[in-house]
Design a protein that fits this description.
The protein has 467 residues and is mainly alpha-helical. The chain has 2 domains: 392 residues, no CATH class; 60 residues, 2-Layer Sandwich (Zincin-like). The protein contains 21 helices and 4 strands. A hairpin with a 2-residue loop joins strand 3 and strand 4. The N and C termini lie far apart (55 Å). It is found in: Endoplasmic reticulum membrane. Its EC number is 3.4.24.84.
Length: 467
Amino acid sequence: MDFLHTQLDVLQKHLAFVAVEPIDWKTYVQVSSWLVCLFEVSYVIRLRQYPLYSKTAPPPVLAAHFTDEVFAKSQAYGRDKAKFSLFEGFFKQTLDSLLVQYGVYAWAWSVAGRSIGILGYGPEYEILQSIAYVIVLFLVSVIPSLPLSVYRTFVLEEKHGFNKTTPVLFVMDLLKGYAVGLVLVPPFLAAFLYIFKWAGDRFVPWLMAFLLAFQLVMVVLYPTVIQPLFNKLSPLAEGELRTRIEALASRLKFPLTHLYEIDGSKRSSHSNAYFYGLPWSKHIVIFDTLIKQSKADEVEAVLAHELGHWYHMHPTKLLLISQAHIFTILGIFPAFLHAPAVLRAFDFPADVATHPPTIVAFLLFQMIVAPFEAVVGVAMNALSRRFEYQADNFACKLRGMLKVEEMADMGDRLGRALITLHQENLSTVWVDWLFSAYHHSHPTLGERLRALEAFKVDESKSSKKEL
């Protein structure tokens, strides 16, 4: 532990300039955030991806799988989503920029202080004021964006036949989401900030342990307590699909505890499947839309892909990588926590900036490192796509792994399932490589189908060698 703290102290010495150099942090945040926005929205979406929606035929690798009607619908859907993304990107960036430029973050801290003052609490109750501060910022940043959510659901998704959400359900979802936030965020934030107060500048390992514990608790809490507030999870009915999935899980020694069907069609006709849980107890959830849209053997192939993620320990690897990322962020943060000049740059009064509130310093720090986080996002997308290929390859190799001849066509089934998913979801089939790198955690359909063909060839060669 002492070695860790020694290395962190060395890092802080290299970052000492943050507290003494007269850096115009507000201008830096404004310029860097607009550059990221312009790169993403104007260049990646507008100049690279948007022209592809004018294509009149699918890529050659997909030509046999898409009718003219389905392709035209997918192009129209993609075009409308791109237009919306253009507007949404500029709207949110403009809103964020106005909040920074006109000192709303400093104003919100003052409002939070006056709010708890009404209840008889003074500025010495920093954690309580910090919770009020987060609530004020939520109101001023999220409420202006509500019309975008309404438009996305009731105009964009409705136009293309996906929306199943009623206005009443939409409002209820919002209220439930806010209620869940009010229940979870204050205690989380209180514990988060208390660790800073208790551990001082040696908070990093303690905060890491707290955040890891919180993530593990949420793995259990979200599907068992939170998600049922929004969706109904029912045991998957007896039949061919359940028999196939349970047999596959048993052969792979996957610790399947529950197999659920979720009423995703209650809100949308989009489809999906996933698993969750702790290492010794896993639960599989399948959207009812996926069950309706695909055959049982194709859904089994989709689940084989998902179990490939489990087999290769992808969730665990991503968790470890996220911990390393969090460690890096927390290791840099103390330099900004003890830098009154940073708060002064964002219009905080001298009495607040002299002793920076932890939550304020952390939120400003997040804005400062945001451009670097965009680069991290691209790297994580690249890693995620690599994991997707591995999971696809796993499905193709099941026959050889399990010595079950009926799984010889698992790759073909997975390919058909992916095609069906893209057809039903009107997914874009013409995708620019830079747009995909920036936005997609999964390879494109064409890339996955080509990879599946290569995996099947390799598996066939391996089978012949065994013979």
